[in-house]
Write a structure and sequence with these properties.
407 residues; alpha/beta; Aspartate Aminotransferase, domain 1; Aspartate Aminotransferase, domain 2; 15 strands; binds D-malate
Length: 407
């Protein structure tokens, strides 16, 4: 019989979102007439921007002609998309990133897992707690951790707690970690990092030769102009950070799939005593394991940077941020302690009367037919919290708030 990757057996029962789906399915089976409102998984609901749709239609027609047809594209992405990103997301903010340091991909979730392919197994790793579960689970799957304990923490990973008492600000470690995962605006807490906080992380990473994996999938939701959108806005970050970005949440591409990862050519790692640049390893990895994102989708992503595209995504983001505001103000007035939801599409709520996160999940599901995400699913320090996502129609968000406030 074939041997399996036994590291998978160390994983906790289920990935958070499938477990939520399982409970919803069970509930819907029991109560088929219930009118469920889903504010759980951060999946967008509003239609694709017109500029993206138009660009994709043109691309499809092109593919139907002998001259316009394209087969395999470059594994790293088409240069016109990489250049648009470079100009609009980086050079415009003073980040000296070049187009060939940007790799187009089918998702930040995939890239933040795949990056482990080019990193050694002996690295000491730190994550925040709560944390986007993908960072942890992919380390488990690739044999970088030991077993899980009762609170859901894996041996071999270090968890830096973020909670209301420390203002959801992870304390800079005193010891050396080789690899640190940071996500800002933060999923799940909705917290953001100031320029000074990011600069402290960059100083730390430079001091210890650490690598920061910086997930900025929600940067478009930042409203406060003083908050950096990219870690490369911080001097020195090109020597110590990889950044993950996505079109999923800003342009509604969760189903279309397009994202990008920035690997500066200045980033170095070690193989034994030999210095190696990470760009070359990632380029090699992508060329071997990935055939690129399809042409049509990349044309759709490029249209995000057109004048119409920019205006349309701005409207989408304000729409979701208005939802976030509705959630925050309603729940605050109802006496809940609500964090986030100002520069991020997630409200992070303290559960009432010290209810556990899953008990509150079941309570809301049963009593209000509203689905959220239990904070404990993001880590032990998320216990006693609950996440509501602003990604839904206005009608559903208002209805959900009415139901919760009435409870
Ligand atoms: C979430 O709800 O945390 C996100 O949808 C997860 C993701 O983007 O993969």
């Amino acid at each position: 019989m074939v041997q399996v990757n036994a590291d998978y057996l160390k994983l906790k029962a289920g990935y958070l979102f499938p477990e939520i789906s399982r409970r919803i399915k069970e509930f819907s089976f029991k109560y088929p007439d219930s009118d469920l409102i889903r504010l759980g998984i951060g999946d967008v609901t509003e239609p694709l921007p017109m500029a993206c749709r138009e660009a994709m239609k043109v691309a499809i027609e092109e593919m139907g002609t002998a001259e316009g047809f394209r087969g395999y594209g470059p594994e790293q992405g088409y240069s016109w998309l990489r250049e648009s990103i470079c100009l609009n997301d980086y050079l415009s903010r003073g980040c000296k990133i070049s187009a060939d340091e940007i790799f187009i991909s089918d998702g930040s979730k995939c890239d933040s897992s795949n990056i482990l392919d080019i990193l050694g197994k002996e690295n000491k790793i730190a994550v925040t707690d709560p944390v986007y579960p993908v960072y942890v689970d992919t380390n488990v799957m690739t044999g970088r951790t030991g077993e899980v304990n009762e609170s859901g923490e894996y041996q071999g990973l270090t968890y830096i707690p973020i909670h209301s008492e420390n203002g959801f600000e992870a304390e800079i470690p005193k010891e050396k970690f080789d690899l640190i995962y940071l996500c800002f605006p933060n999923n799940p807490t909705g917290a953001v990092a100031t320029r000074e906080q990011l600069a402290s992380w960059v100083d730390y990473a430079k001091k210890y030769n650490s690598l920061i994996l910086f997930d900025a999938a929600y940067e478009a939701f930042i409203q406060d102009e003083s908050i950096p959108h990219s870690i490369y806005e911080i001097e020195g970050a090109k020597d110590c950070a990889i950044e993950f970005r996505s079109f999923s949440k800003n342009a509604g591409f969760t189903g279309i799939r397009c994202a990008f990862t920035v690997i500066p050519k200045t980033l170095k790692g070690k193989a034994g005593n030999k210095e190696v640049d990470l760009w070359s390893l990632w380029n090699r990895r992508q060329s071997t394991k990935f055939n690129g994102v399809n042409y049509i989708v990349q044309r759709g992503a490029e249209a995000v940077y057109s004048e119409q595209g920019q205006a349309q995504i701005k409207r989408l983001i304000s729409f979701y941020m208005d939802n976030a505001q509705i959630i925050k103000s309603n729940l605050t007035s109802a006496g809940f302690e609500v964090f986030g939801a100002i520069n991020a599409p997630y409200a992070w709520i303290k559960t009432p009367e010290n209810m556990s996160s899953w008990d509150f999940f079941d309570f809301l599901l049963k009593k209000a037919n509203v689905v959220g995400t239990p904070g404990s699913g993001f880590g032990a320090a998320g216990e006693g919290y609950f996440r509501l996502s602003a990604f839904n129609s206005r009608e559903n968000v208002e209805k959900a708030m009415e139901r919760i406030v009435k409870l």
